[in-house]
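Section: protein folds

Sequence with per-residue tokens
===
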Amino acid sequence: MVLSTHHIIRTLNCPVHEENLRKIQYLPKDASYGITKFSDMTDEEFKAKYLSDYHSKSWQYQKYRNGTKLGSFPEKMKQMKIPQKYDWRNINNQSFVSPIKNQENCGGCWAFCTVETLESVSGYKRKTKPPVLSVQQVIDCANNNYGCEGGDICTAVDWMEKSSVHILTEEQYPLTLKSGSCRIPSQNKGVQVSSYTCENLTGKESTVLDHLYNIGPVSVAVDATTWKNYMGGIIKWHCGTDRNHAVQIIGYDISGDVPYYIVRNSWGQDFGVDGYLYIKVGDNLCGIAAEVTTIQVV
């Protein structure tokens, strides 16, 4: 991630900068941590601005498919009939992942990652470049959620399926990053959800890998408390399990000593590794397996 000169100067002059530098020195060395665009915020400010709007209701909507128990997780991976690496940005030289988005001050992570997954599976089904769909439509219209004040990925996909709503393109229903009144589309042209799953796969992360290979990218709820200073590398330690954010997993790499997920965030391309981060597979790090959704489209 490259920070602008203006941001670096502003950060260096920030009264909380020195305190953040001290904390960075004590962070685990598994991943790379340093000065980011969030370094002029205290931990409390960061949590209030970016991690206060996830409202998990997944227990009401869970549709389970049980993972197969094959012994220890490394043994499971060896027995799985999946590739060692899989990345939806490059499936037979074609990407089914839309450009990185930025939710800014809107607490709509739940809508962003759900729409991103809808884009991916829609593009793959049609074997075309994924459409850029309207996050704003979901923010404004999804029942049992609260727009930019927060929501839940399971309630979002449940609304999509039960209402048979057509999700329009961003061009048809532009992003404002503010909660607004729902504008019902005048014509039934858009992407529809035919079915979904919402699962707690804690202890069954082989099923997450199976979903990524056989179905498509997935939306997950996570604990992003420690991500403020993340710059790269694989997160392997000290990430909690409180669900306070939602992201999309777009692939995995289990070929090396440390298997990891490829995780897409919605904090802009200047976060992490061009908008992405990497999280170790198998230990429910950051609570990544506790609320997992897949989507199928009409």
Summary: The chain has one domain: 50-297. The helical segments are 5-12, 17-25, 43-50, 73-79, 109-126, 135-141, 153-163, 205-214. The chain is about 25% helix and 15% strand.
